[in-house]
Every structure is written in C-alpha cells, then in structure tokens.
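DM from R.C. (forwarded with permission)

"hey, sorry to bug you on a friday — could you get me a structure for this? deadline for the figure draft is monday and I only need the backbone to look sensible"
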Amino acid sequence: MLYAEPLEPAICLTVMGGWDTDCTGATAGSLVGAFRWARALPARWVGDFNDRLESIVIGMTDNRFTDLAERTLAQAKRLGA
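My reply, with the result:
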C-alpha cells in the first residue's frame, strides 16, 4: 500500500508480486477504492462493469454492485459498526 497513489500502480505492483494475484490485486484495489471512494477512481477501473457482478456462487450468479453495497451496509448497521 506504500504505492497506492494512483490506483493502477497499487494493483499492478501487487499482481506482479505473484502468488495469489487475483485476490491480492483485488484487495489492493479495494483498499485504495475505500480510501479514495469510487468516484475518485479512473473510469477504466470502475466504469465498465455496468453495475453487474457475475459469480459462480450457486443462487447468486448475477448481482448488482449497488445491491451488494446496500446489503453490506445493512449488515454493518445490524452489527453496530
């Protein structure tokens, strides 16, 4: 996270480290996004998803990011976070 400005080097440097690159790259991008908010991120990293997430989880194969964010917020409120 020392290289988290801007977003692309944070993700790319993390992935270039090897090992579990999908998870580590996603984690680096998520942390930078959480610190900077999505609206501050370049469109090439957040604009092409059309608010859709396809998953291989049975029963949850097609999701909207906004729905998932609302569910996450509801859980955080429920847990008193």
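R.C.: lifesaver. The first strand starts at residue 53 and ends at 54.
me: no worries. The chain has two domains: 1-48, 49-81.
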